[in-house]
Amino acid sequence: MKSVITFAEYSDPGGRPVNEDSICSFVNGQNHGFVLCDGLGGMGMGDQASRLVVQVFQNMFMKAGKMSHFLPEAFQAAQDVLTAEQKHLHAEERMKTTAVAMVTDQKKLYVGHIGDSRAYLFKDNKVLWRTLDHSIPQMLALTGEIQESEIRNHKNRSIILRTMGITWDEPMYELAKPVSVSKCDAVLLCSDGFWELIEDEDMCVLLSQARSPREWLDEMASVVKRNGAGRDMDNNSAIAVWIAKE
Predict the structure, then answer these.
(1) Cβ contact 71:176 at 8 Å
(2) Is residue 227 classed as helix, strand or coil in its secondary structure?
(3) At 110, which helix (H) or strand (E)?
(4) Which of 69, 91, 196, 241 is the most exposed place for a label (fewest CB within 10 A)?
C-alpha cells in the first residue's frame, strides 16, 4: 500500500530581531525528508550554523540511496562541515545549533535529533512518541526530580547538553528506532520556541479538527502566538507532515 505524504512549513522570528531557526522539506522520488535546526543565539552566529546544517542535509538527501543509512551519514557530514566552517571563521566557540530530522522511504520513518528541537509522532490523533530533549529539564524529568509538564517553564530549560558544533569524541546525535509508516499518520518537527507554547493535548485536538497539514500547522501557530503574547517570544518554527494510505 502506497503512502501519500503531504506537508506544511512554518517559521516566525517571534520577538527576536533575527530568526535563527532554519527548516527545509525535500522530495526525491518516493523518498521524503524534513529537517529543522534552531541556532543557539546566545552563542552567536546561530543563524549561520542552522542554515549550514540544513543545507548539508538537503544536498546529501538529493544524492542519497537507502533512507535507512541517511541520517547517521547526514548528521556526521553536517558536523564535519560545521566544525570546518567554525575553524575557517575563527568561531569555534560560536556557531552551534540543534537539529531534528525525519526521512521516509514509503516503508519506514527514520528520526534523529540533537538538542531540544523535537519530533512528535501521532497515531489516531494521539501522541505516539516524541524525542527526548538533550537538556537539563529533560534529564530532571527522566530521573523523577520534576514532572514532564514542568519542562516547558523550567528556569534551566535553555541549557542544552548536546548540540551540533561542539567537539564530539563520539556521535552525540540520537537515532530513534525506525517506525513503520502504517503505525503513524502525522509527524511534527518543531523548535523549542514552538513546543514550549503549546501543550501536547492542544496539538492532538487541533490535529483531529484539521483538514490538511497546512490547517493543522496554522492553528497550532495561532495557539503559540496567543500563549506567547506579552512575552519575549523566541523564534518558533515547525514542519507538519501527514501520512495517508492510498
Answers:
(1) no
(2) helix
(3) strand 108-114
(4) 69
pTM above 0.85, yes or no: yes
Residue type at 106 in one-letter notation: Q
Predicted local confidence at residue 19, as pLDDT? 96
121: three-class secondary structure by DSSP: strand
Nine cell digits for residue 26: 525535500
For 42, list phi and psi in degrees, rounded to 5: -65, -20
Residue 133 DSSP code: P
Give me 143's grid cell.
530521573
List the alpha helices (DSSP H) in the chain. Answer: 46-61, 67-88, 136-142, 192-195, 200-209, 213-228
Question: What confidence category does residue 1 fall into, taking pLDDT thresholds of 50, 70 and 90?
Answer: low
> Minimal CA–CA distance to 188: which of 239, 233, 149, 145?
239
Nearest to 73 by CA among 109, 49, 47, 101: 101
